[in-house]
Design a protein that fits this description.
Length: about 475
């Protein structure tokens, strides 16, 4: 694809290099016991957790050295024989600089759930958020990835220095903007850092992967959009990165928005404040001539910037599961379908896009996506950690469970080419058996979960071998 000159800036930013020591500082900011985690809603904890704020070196949107922050959540254990996989989680859209994981924002719960079940959880704040200076380069693929990659490097440095063993598995996930960030990170790791990182699997949720088409429609269409504050956020962020979307803000925005909107992006305001300051039809903030130029010229700098941050047209070699909801009012689910179809056309084989159906909106879909992602990862992890009622040591093999989460039926698959006799046991998180079946000779079991309450269930298939996995019912 031909790209004009300023594309090369973003391309160069997507290639952070190993710059010596990345970790600047670490600070223990919270410790929670298993009962304290239960009070936070984490009822499945195997470990208490310690939460650290990390400051680390990275690069800004112009490729210059800067620092960023994020939260690292570790399982509490004195057992030095254990080792853990890394799970990186990218958070959704926020504007206030303090509404981030290193300040114990709401999405720190993902770190609690992950670390309390045997992962080293990595939650970057992103550039321009937390302790990082400047405006956050919103939905800018290169710096989302560089901030995540460099934080993972910082975590690796910390674990080596503190004798915490990792098992070499790396899982990537995120929701909403974080879905875009997780996809960007996976893409750049595979294409540019395969000698340093091997992505075990990724699971982006409800992300705007197709910015140049789907998100462009949100900018250009004369229709109401409930979260219109994303439109100026994207404009200001891309102007800060590329510098050519307009010469003066008044060239792009009409009065009074050219004066009322910029002050809201100083890091002290929330997205709700911006949404409230934008008209119901968000494109009404634009000068008529500017909007028409963007609509009619596919090489307008705004359109070029959007294309430069698409993250769906590539060929993943590690498994990907995308979770989405068809009633999502903020990030159209067609982003996931476009990504799925394009990657499959490129030759991807181990990729799926999983829907919760047509009832859940963007907020409710997060639970489906996050539990689905963790269930997907749980089925792949291996090595020397203890996890809940079932441990995942090398004596056990992983079940394939899909769809997971499920609200009705799911298929449980395992390797049984000789058609040996197996039995299946399903337990709730207290260890109570809720289902048992024996004399199974196939390699696939269709399980009906309609009579089970919402929650996490542990599945064991026993016979010639032992297979284990977790299932989320919603």
């Amino acid at each position: 694809m031909k790209r004009i000159l300023y594309f090369f800036l973003a391309i160069s930013l997507s290639m952070p290099s190993v710059r010596g020591q990345v970790l600047v500082s670490s600070e223990l900011i919270q410790s929670l016991t298993i009962p304290e985690l239960a009070a936070q809603g984490v009822f499945t904890a195997t470990y208490g957790v310690d939460v650290y704020k990390l400051i680390y070196n990275t690069v800004d949107a112009q490729g210059e050295p800067t620092t960023a922050s994020g939260a690292m959540v570790l399982p509490q254990t004195d057992d030095e024989t254990l080792c853990f996989p890394i799970m990186s989680y990218n958070h959704g859209t926020v504007l206030a600089k303090d509404n981030v994981p290193s300040r114990l924002s709401g999405e720190i719960l993902v770190g609690y759930f992950s670390a309390s079940d045997g992962y080293v959880a990595v939650l970057p704040d992103y550039l321009g958020m937390g302790d990082s200076p400047g405006l956050h380069p919103y939905v800018h693929a290169a710096t989302e990835a560089s901030a995540t990659i460099d934080m993972i490097r910082a975590v690796r440095e910390y674990t080596v220095a503190n004798n915490i063993a990792l098992n070499d598995q790396l899982f990537l996930t995120g929701y909403s903007q974080g879905g875009h960030a997780a996809m960007a990170t996976h893409k750049i790791m595979q294409e540019q850092f395969s000698d340093e990182f091997t992505v075990t699997a990724s699971s982006p949720g409800s992300g705007p992967y197709d910015l140049s088409n789907t998100s462009f429609n949100d900018i250009s269409q004369d229709e109401a959009y409930s979260t219109g504050g994303y439109v100026p956020y994207l404009l200001f962020a891309y102007q800060s990165v590329y510098g050519n979307l307009y010469e003066n803000v008044s060239d792009a925005l009409k009065a009074p928005y050219d004066t009322t909107l910029p002050p809201l992006f100083d890091g002290t305001h929330t997205m709700d404040e911006v949404h409230a300051a934008v008209p119901a039809i968000p494109n009404e903030i634009f000068q008529d001539a500017y909007l028409e130029a963007v609509r009619n010229n596919e090489n307008h700098p705004y359109r070029v910037a959007l294309r430069d941050n698409d993250v769906y047209d590539w060929l993943p070699t590690s498994p990907i599961r995308m979770f989405y909801c068809e009633a999502d009012e903020q990030v159209p689910f067609t982003n996931s379908i476009t990504a799925l179809e394009t990657m499959q056309a490129n030759g991807a084989t181990d990729i799926e896009a999983l829907s919760a159906g047509a009832t859940l909106g963007h907020g409710a879909c997060a639970t489906f996506a996050l539990f689905g992602s963790k269930g997907f990862f749980d089925g792949m992890r291996e090595g020397c950690m203890e996890v809940g009622i079932f441990d995942f040591s090398n004596d056990y093999l992983s079940l394939q469970i899909a769809p997971n989460p499920t609200s009705h039926t799911t298929q449980i698959r395992f390797d049984n080419p000789s058609q040996s006799t197996y039995q299946i046991i399903v337990k709730d998180i207290s260890g109570k058996m809720v289902y048992f079946e024996e004399n199974i000779h196939s390699e696939a079991i269709t399980f009906n979960s309609i009579d089970l309450s919402s929650g996490v269930y542990l599945i064991e298939v026993r016979g010639e071998k032992v297979y284990r996995g977790k299932m989320m019912v919603y």
